[in-house]
Structures are given as C-alpha cells and as structure tokens.
Amino acid sequence: MVDKVSKGHRLVMENREQIALTGVKKVQSFDPKEIVLETELGILSIKGEQLGIKLLNLEEGKIDLQGHVGALIYQRNTNGGSRQGLMNRIFR
C-alpha cells in the first residue's frame, strides 16, 4: 500500500466559472448551489449557481469544478475545539 503524501493545497479560479483544486481529502456535500470540501487546510465551502464537478480524483487530492462561483469560504479549523484554543493561548 502506498502512503498518501501531503502536497499542500492550491486553488486556481478562472473567470469565476472554473476552479481547479489540489489538497482535497473529501467531498462532504454537493449540490448545484454549494459544494463543501475537506482540504489540507480545513473545510472549504464553494457557493454559487449551477455548480458541477468535472473531475474528481481523491487519491491524488484533485478536483475540478465549474459553474458560477459566488463565494469561497474557509471555515475555522475546529479540530480539538475550544480546549485546543485555550492551550494555544496559555503556551504562547
């Protein structure tokens, strides 16, 4: 079995109609108005109209999307919850 090697996260958008992403771990949800992805840098919500997936290769962490993009939103990393935040504040 070959281990996955993290290659980072990259997002390239052309004319707010095509997006090529790397560093994608999982598609959490998908519909024509919103696509939610788990990436190397956290959860990414892509909102718009007539959104569709042109290419999906989770082994390589790649996805290509098309549609009319209205917003790209990265959610705060909530791994560890508030406890992790507290520990980070104490040991700064």
TrEMBL record:
The organism's superkingdom is given as Bacteria
Output the Pfam families linked to this UniProt entry.
YabP
- Any one Gene Ontology biological process term? sporulation resulting in formation of a cellular spore
Q: Quote the InterPro entries the UniProt record gives.
A: Spore_YabP (IPR012504), Spore_YabP/YqfC (IPR022476), YabP_sf (IPR038705)
The name on file for this protein is Sporulation protein YabP
Q: Which organism is it from?
A: Desulfosporosinus fructosivorans
